[in-house]
Amino acid sequence: MSKTKIKKTSSLLEMKDIHIQGYSDEKWHDIILGVDISLKRGEVLGLIGESGAGKSTLGLAAMGFARPGCKIIKGKIIFDGIDLIKANEQTKRKLRGSRISYVAQSAAASFNPAHRLIKQTIESSLHHKIKQTQLAKQEAKELFQALQLPNPDLIGERYPHQVSGGQLQRIMTAMSMSSRPDLIIFDEPTTALDVTTQVEVLSSIRSVVREFNTAAIYITHDLAVVAQMADKIKVLRYGKTVEDAKTKIMLSSPKKSYTKSLWAVRSIRKKEKKSKTKILSIKKINASYGNGPLVLNNVNIAVPLGGTLAIVGESGSGKSTTARVITGLLPPKNGKIIYKAKELPKNIKHRTKEQLRKIQMIYQSPDTSMNPRHKTLEIIGRPLEFYFGLNKSKLYKRVIELLEMIELDESFIDRYPSELSGGQKQRICIARALAANPELVICDEVTSALDQIVQEGILKLLQKLQKELNISYIFITHDIDTVRAISDEVVVMFEGKVIEQGLKSKIFKPPHPKYTELLLSSVPEMNPNWLTKILNKRS
Amino acid sequence: MKTKKQTANYSAKSEVAQFKTKKSFSHVAKRELKKAPFTAWLGMIITSAYILIAVFAPLIAPYGESEVFPIPFAPWSDEFLLGTDQIGRDILTRLIYGARNTIGIAFVTTALAFVIGVLFGLIAAITRETFIDQILGRLVDVLMAIPLLIFALMLLSIVGPSAINLIIIIAVLDSTRIFRLTRAVALNVVVMDYVEAAHMRGEKLMWIMKREILPNIMPPLVAEFGLRFCFVFLTIASLSFLGVGIQPPTADWGSMVREMAGLIQFAEFDTQAAITPLLPAAAIAILTVAVNFIVDWFLHKTSGLKDE
Question: What is the Cα–Cα distance from A381 to A379, expressed in whole angstroms?
Answer without folding.
Answer: 6
